[in-house]
Amino acid sequence: MGRPLNPEEMRELLASLLEGAAGNRREHWAAAIGDFEQLPTHFNVRSNWQVHPRGSKRDIDAIQKAVDLVRQEHPYVA
Fold first, then answer.
1. Which of 9, 26, 18, 12 is CA-nearest to residue 59?
2. DSSP string covering 1-57, please?
3. Can you give the residue ranges of every domain in the chain?
4. Is 12 exposed, middle or buried (0-12, 13-18, 19+ CB in 10 A)?
5. Contact present, 21 and 62 (Cβ < 8 Å)
């Protein structure tokens, strides 16, 4: 497990991953990721963040897959 990233670093990591895996530009993915929410750890022991993706079904599916992958390495944001 790596060091906790801040929300902006997490958004950049997700956007970069999506750009390489699903095509389109990083800016597109950063916007499609939607709002980034940091959750209280006492209610969310396995991970303290979530995103609220928006866009096409294809975009939302790709974002959810990327979140699942990234959350394995970075379950917490700082």
1. 18
2. --PPBPHHHHHHHHHHHHHHHH-S-HHHHHHHTBEEEE--TTT-SS-SEEEE--S-H
3. 7-73
4. middle
5. yes
The two three-digit tokens of residue 36, written as one number = 């980034």
**pLDDT tens across 2-38, in order?**
678 999 999 999 999 999 999 899 999 999 999 999 9
DSSP per-residue string spanning 15-26: HHHHHHHH-S-H
Task: Please count the residues of the chain.
Answer: 78
Query: For tokens 């944001």, what's the residue?
Result: 77
What is the phi-psi region of residue 55: left when phi exceeds 0, alpha when psi lies from -120 to 50, beta otherwise? Answer: left
* pTM for the full predicted model: 0.88
